[in-house]
Amino acid sequence: MNQIRAIYREEGKISGLSSDERTAQRQLVVKPLVDVFFAYLKQNLDRVPKSGKTKEAFTYVLNQERYLRVFLENGDVPMDNNASERAIRGFCIGKNYAVSRIMFCSAA
Fold first, then answer.
1. pTM above 0.85?
2. What is the pLDDT of residues 61-87, one digit of tens each?
3. In sequence order, what DSSP letters do the residues of 48-103 get, joined into one string?
């Protein structure tokens, strides 16, 4: 968790830069942190219990490594999709609320 926190901290420091400057800083500062993160996962994969959520998480992240590193090569690519998730949250919550209201009213 500390490694992930460090990656987000450094990414936050460069958020106001241009795309090219952000790419350069990601290569210089963020990429080494990401490299250490993936090295840790690979080194500790066999130490994690064979079944369980931790093993699932390690395996998922390692299987997605190529895609999770895309942001390092392009300053226009966000590190995560949090902005997209926030944008649709209201719609999803509203949709669930409407469905539950319809179900509640029809049951009454």
1. no
2. 999 999 999 999 999 888 877 666 667
3. S-SSSHHHHHHHHHHHTHHHHTGGGT-TTS-SSSHHHHHHHHHHHHHHHHHHHHHH
